[in-house]
Design a protein that fits this description.
Blueprint (H helix, E strand, L loop, with lengths): L4 E7 L4 H12 L3 E7 L7 H11 L11 H5 L9 H10 L8 E4 L4 E3 L3 H5 L2
Parallel strand pairs: 1-2
Antiparallel strand pairs: 1-3, 3-4
Length: about 120
């Protein structure tokens, strides 16, 4: 497997899934240039749109696993792309993590060893 440079990893450093993903990338010999802590550094709407485009849809970037998803009653609503973008922009927990962007512009969200093996 050729090594890929990860341009940016959007994550939470204390999230077990994010740290597992980071370790899997490093163990495979990939490099990570920039880490963005989504709790401390808000992700702009423009960036969220670009990430969603890279994934193929806004829904692919939106986390329905966030505790607030149910507590806010969002699970009982039909959310538009605009709604999901607004929620992700105002509350980092709605961004599926981790999100990695390779130097070539490929975007992956969430951690899957199988998906990472395709890098």
């Amino acid at each position: 497997m050729s090594k890929v440079a990860i341009e940016t990893m959007y994550w939470l450093p204390y999230c077990s899934t994010c740290t597992k993903a980071e370790q899997a990338l490093l163990d495979a010999g990939h490099t990570i240039k920039t880490h963005v802590n989504v709790k401390e550094e808000s992700v702009s709407r423009e960036t969220l749109v670009k990430l969603a485009e890279g994934l193929g849809s806004v829904e692919a970037l939106f986390s329905k696993r966030a505790m607030k998803y149910r507590s806010m009653g969002l699970d009982k609503m039909t959310l538009s792309d605009d709604d999901m973008l607004t929620h992700m922009q105002t509350e980092y927990t709605f961004i599926k993590r981790p999100v990695i962007v390779t130097e070539s512009g490929r975007v992956l969200a969430g951690f899957s060893a199988k998906q990472y093996a395709t890098l």
